[in-house]
């Protein structure tokens, strides 16, 4: 970590591998979170049909989800996306798998952009830059098939320049967008952010009124976002600078995890920040987690079976075995055993193991994942059957592995064309971030230069829109939201009863503030984002789609057979005639003052006849049941 000049855009190959594995894991987590809600958010039976999705998209957007409108198609693409994410984690044909993962994720985002937040933008950008990086060169199936792996751990190329700039842009441009006095003058930004009960959770309620801490911490966060990226790009003492910047940013994201419910965003950010860790740290981690020495072994495979050879090499790499891989036929005694037993042979400390038992012994004596040995050994006879079935079909597996796991002399790296493309895309991204700067910041830049940047970004819109390179890192900018609130969706049934449409309950909605917005009002952070956007002035159409879908789903349950479980004496599910959507706005007061609550009527909807909206039946029924202090507040 000396003071020699170093390239600030160099990244460690192992950091890229860790990023690849993290991105694949986060893709799966995101899909699993979304899966339970696809009927509502991604089907024609929900609130956002394919037609609505296409109509809202710009000319250069695309989505595989637009090819069919049935739920079967959505489930198929989700399953394919998870399969591709698993291949990405494993590092199988990494370049192509990265491309397929990117196309599937772009398609998912374009299907319903109302659900998206900053973490989604960052995840798709990490996948995009992965197209220009050798992130399959370590900790991958691809790497095990290379005869002469590169020993150089640092990589510099167009992709690494673009990736480092992208990671730092998230913070650097965010600082410029945080230009409110709450950030730059009085230091109240964190106070307001932690009082937004729609996102505040875990530790936030316990310390958000500690002004002696929130004020200096606000200034620290702003200056860290502004100066941290500059420090990380220092060519002097770069390892120290990068390590310090990465540590500060990672601790910031950990703070988000324990105080703000913003979904996967902090995990995605931490995954990206792994790239900033210098080679010296990865060398240290490699020493700490190096496999412990164990007895040498020989793995004998059938010389005529390429698949068998590749499998042995893969097992040796995955479980960190101290093993030689040799063809059985070159040792007559072992070759005879292989022919008689129709099995590979594992030889270790004078003992020989066959079939499934050989695999179990490899795992037990390996340097990684030894805990898997016990469940594998419990399989026993079934394991031998699996081995025999694979053996009888090794020709098919051989053809599959010839495509998925080809032998290579060296691992291919991005060539000049891909590196140049990455640099052009990086310039586009920087132009977009500069174009989004507030006017005060732009005033300090050359007008002619800004005009050129703007024109370049406009010219690049086909690329920006197609690849979803558009980004705006405006979380809590220009200052945190100074109000939050909760929803009341008051329904009126055909028997004159009031019901809670939001919570799907046959009782009137409770007007009191919920203890936790998630999950009492929103099942997860996707629903929170959806509801938050839906109440904005520009999403009137979405409010109508939500109301229509809610009516259709509620009335599809009508009848005693469809009543939700509410005990043995569950009442029949009544017909929903109409419902109103209210938002109870709670303003966050300045430090030391009392807050205010105001009721807002967002939407009135009649499920059976829109011409009857003038009757205001829901409002009249609601006013009749509320106490005076609430009745006077309801519009």
List keywords for this structure.
635 residues, Glutaredoxin, 30 helices, four-stranded antiparallel sheet, 10 strands
Class derived from helix and strand content: alpha+beta
Shape, per Cα inertia axes = globular
User: How many alpha or pi helices?
Assistant: 30
Query: How many individual domains?
Result: 3
Please compute the radius of gyration using only Cα atoms: 29 Å
Average pLDDT level: 91
Largest sheet: 4 strands, mixed
Report the β-strand fraction as a percent range.
5-15%
- What is the end-to-end distance? 65 Å
What topology, given as strand order, has the largest sheet?
4-3-5-6
Total strand segments: 10
The helicity comes to: 40-55%
Q: Unreliable runs, pLDDT <50, ≥5 residues?
A: none
Brief summary of the model shown:
With 635 residues, the chain is of the alpha+beta class.
Description:
This protein is 53% helix and 9% strand. With 635 residues, the chain is an alpha+beta fold. Strands 4-3-5-6 form a 4-stranded mixed sheet, sandwiched between helices. A 4-stranded antiparallel sheet has the order 8-7-9-10. The chain has a two-stranded antiparallel ribbon with strand order 1-2. The radius of gyration is 29 Å and the shape is globular. The chain has 30 helices and 10 strands. Helix 1 (13-35) runs antiparallel to helix 14 (265-273), helix 6 (118-130) runs parallel beside helix 14 and helix 13 packs antiparallel against helix 14. The chain has 3 domains: 14-284 and 415-467, no CATH class; 297-404, 3-Layer(aba) Sandwich (Glutaredoxin), CATH 3.40.30; 483-631, no CATH class. Its main location: membrane. It is a multi-pass membrane protein. Keywords: Membrane, Transmembrane, Transmembrane helix. This is HTTM-like domain-containing protein. The chain crosses the membrane at residues 13-33, 71-94, 114-135, 155-177, 210-232, 264-285.
């Amino acid at each position: 970590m000396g003071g020699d000049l170093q390239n600030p855009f160099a990244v460690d190959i192992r950091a890229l591998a860790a990023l690849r594995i993290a991105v694949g894991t986060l893709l799966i987590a995101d899909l699993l979170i979304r899966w339970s809600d696809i009927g509502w958010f991604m089907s024609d039976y929900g609130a956002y049909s394919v037609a609505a999705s296409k109509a809202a998209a710009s000319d250069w957007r695309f989505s595989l989800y637009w090819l069919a409108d049935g739920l079967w198609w959505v489930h198929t693409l989700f399953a394919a996306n998870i399969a591709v994410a698993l291949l990405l984690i494993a590092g199988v044909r990494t370049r192509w798998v990265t491309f397929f993962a990117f196309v599937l994720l772009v398609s998912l985002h374009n299907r319903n952009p109302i659900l998206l937040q900053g973490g989604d933008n960052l995840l798709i950008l990490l996948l995009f830059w992965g197209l220009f990086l050798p992130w399959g060169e370590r900790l991958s199936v691809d790497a095990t098939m290379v005869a002469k792996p590169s020993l150089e751990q640092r990589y510099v190329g167009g992709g690494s320049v673009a990736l480092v700039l992208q990671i730092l842009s998230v913070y650097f441009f965010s600082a410029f967008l945080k230009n409110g006095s709450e950030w730059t003058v009085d230091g109240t930004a964190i106070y307001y952010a932690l009082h937004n009960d729609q996102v505040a959770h875990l530790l936030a309620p316990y310390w958000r009124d500690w002004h002696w801490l929130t004020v200096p911490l606000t200034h620290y966060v702003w200056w860290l976002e502004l100066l941290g990226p500059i420090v990380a790009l220092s060519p002097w003492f770069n390892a120290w600078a990068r390590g310090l910047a990465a540590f500060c940013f990672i601790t910031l994201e950990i703070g988000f995890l324990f105080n703000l419910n913003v979904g996967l965003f902090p995990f995605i950010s931490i995954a990206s920040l792994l790239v900033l860790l210098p080679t010296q740290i990865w060398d240290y981690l490699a020493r700490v987690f190096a496999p412990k020495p164990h007895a040498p072994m020989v793995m004998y495979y059938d010389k005529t079976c390429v698949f068998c050879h590749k499998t042995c090499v893969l097992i040796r790499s995955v479980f960190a075995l101290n093993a030689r891989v040799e063809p059985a036929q070159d040792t007559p005694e072992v070759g005879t055993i292989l022919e008689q037993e129709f099995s590979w042979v594992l030889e270790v400390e004078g003992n020989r193991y066959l079939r499934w038992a050989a695999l179990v012994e490899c795992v037990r004596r390996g340097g990684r994942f030894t805990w898997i040995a016990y469940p594998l050994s419990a399989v026993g006879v079934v394991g031998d059957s699996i081995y025999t079935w694979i053996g009888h079909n090794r020709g098919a597996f051989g053809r599959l592995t010839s495509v998925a796991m080809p032998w290579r002399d060296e691992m291919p790296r991005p060539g000049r064309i891909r590196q140049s493309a990455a640099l052009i895309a990086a310039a586009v991204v920087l132009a977009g971030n500069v174009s989004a700067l507030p006017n005060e910041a732009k005033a300090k830049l050359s007008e002619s230069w800004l005009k050129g940047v703007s024109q370049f970004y406009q010219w690049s819109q086909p690329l920006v829109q197609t690849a979803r390179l558009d980004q705006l890192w405006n979380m809590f900018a220009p200052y945190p939201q100074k109000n939050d609130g909760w929803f009341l969706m008051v329904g009126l049934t055909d028997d004159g009863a009031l019901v809670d449409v939001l919570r799907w309950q046959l009782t009137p909605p409770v007007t009191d503030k919920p203890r936790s917005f998630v999950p009492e009002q929103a099942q997860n952070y996707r629903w929170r984002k959806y509801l938050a956007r839906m109440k904005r002035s520009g999403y009137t159409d979405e409010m109508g789609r939500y109301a229509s879908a809610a009516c259709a789903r509620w009335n599809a349950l009508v009848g005693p057979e469809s009543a939700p479980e509410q005990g043995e004496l569950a009442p029949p599910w009544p017909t929903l005639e109409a419902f109103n959507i209210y938002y109870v706005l709670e303003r966050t007061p300045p430090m030391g003052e009392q807050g205010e609550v105001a009721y807002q009527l967002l939407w009135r909807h009649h499920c059976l006849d829109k011409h009857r909206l003038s009757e205001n039946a829901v409002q009249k029924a609601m006013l009749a049941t509320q106490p005076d202090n609430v009745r006077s507040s309801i519009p």
